[in-house]
Amino acid sequence: MKIHPTALVDKKAKLADDIEVGPYAIIGPDVEIGGSTKVGAHVVIEGYTSIGKGCRIFTGAVLGSIPQDLKYKGVKSFLKIGGNNTIREYATLNPGTSEGSATDIGEDNLLMAYSHVAHDCKVGNGCVIANNGTLAGHVTLEDKAVIGGLTAIHQFTRVGKMAIIGGCSKVVQDIPPFSTCDGHPARVYTLNAVGLQRAGVTKEAQSALKKAFKFLFNSGLTFKNAAEKIKEGVEGCEEVDYLLDFIKNSKRGVCRGAE
């Protein structure tokens, strides 16, 4: 364990033997950190925060400070961060608001400088939040979602897996899986073809999704009627089924196609 002499690490904190803690970092008593994690200079980790193996946390990040939510009344809540995450300079991550609640971060995510993950958010695996990307409370990012810099996402909104959102966007409704979105407010422009290819999605599934997107976002049909057309005229596959289920289960509504 390499702890810089200027770091303040509470004796009650549970730290793996092979972690590194940089100058002037502060680690509170209820923090747990897994093996091979590197904590940079001036990082603050407090509250009931657990961090998995192999994470890199850069200068000035603040993890586990109380939620920025007026409903928070000092209850015991959690911030859970999985393994192999990269958290860049001055990012901020808050725990849940209610008793026993948690903000959950999966594995292999990149949270760039000044990004913010608010209370009660759920972030999957392999996601990217670019510089100054902001998640309000109760936001869900599904696996391999990419959030452009300076993008703000409204509370309780979902971003579907393999979706990508352009920088400076305003997200007030759910972002469908596999989509490329942009705008103020965000709208669906096209299929995220590059993301699908990188993820190894078959050409057949990509073709089916392309047809489904035309019905959903370019036909002028309601989502309900578009779904019926898709079931009639598009060859079924796991990805199309996932897309339709995501839209069906939306509570905030799904953003529409760009005009």
Would you give an account of this structure?
The protein is an alpha/beta fold. It folds into two domains: 2-141, 3 Solenoid (UDP N-Acetylglucosamine Acyltransferase, domain 1); 197-248, Udp N-acetylglucosamine O-acyltransferase, Domain 2, CATH 1.20.1180. The protein has four helices and 28 strands. Strands 1-4-7-10-13-16-19-22-25-27-28 form an eleven-stranded mixed sheet. The N and C termini lie far apart (56 Å).
- CATH homologous superfamily annotation of the largest domain: Hexapeptide repeat proteins
Sheet with the most strands: spatial strand order: 1-4-7-10-13-16-19-22-25-27-28
Low-confidence spans: pLDDT under 50, at least 5 residues? Answer: none
Main beta sheet: strand number and arrangement? 11 strands, mixed
Q: How much helical structure, as a percent, in the residues? A: 10-25%
CATH topology of the largest domain: UDP N-Acetylglucosamine Acyltransferase, domain 1
Q: End-to-end distance, in Å?
A: 56 Å
Tell me, rounded to a whole number, the average pLDDT. Answer: 97
State the domain count: 2
Apparent shape? elongated
Radius of gyration: 20 Å
Strand content: 25-35%
Tally of individual helices: 4
CATH domain class name of the largest domain: Mainly Beta
CATH architecture term of the largest domain = 3 Solenoid
Total count of strands? 28
Please describe the topology of this protein:
Layout: E1 2-3, E2 8-9, E3 14-15, E4 20-21, E5 26-27, E6 32-33, E7 38-39, E8 44-45, E9 48-51, E10 56-57, E11 62-63, E12 78-81, E13 86-87, E14 92-93, E15 102-105, E16 110-111, E17 116-117, E18 122-123, E19 128-129, E20 134-135, E21 140-141, E22 146-147, E23 152-153, E24 158-159, E25 164-165, E26 170-171, E27 179-183, E28 186-191, H1 193-198, H2 203-217, H3 223-233, H4 238-248
Helix pairs in contact: 2-3
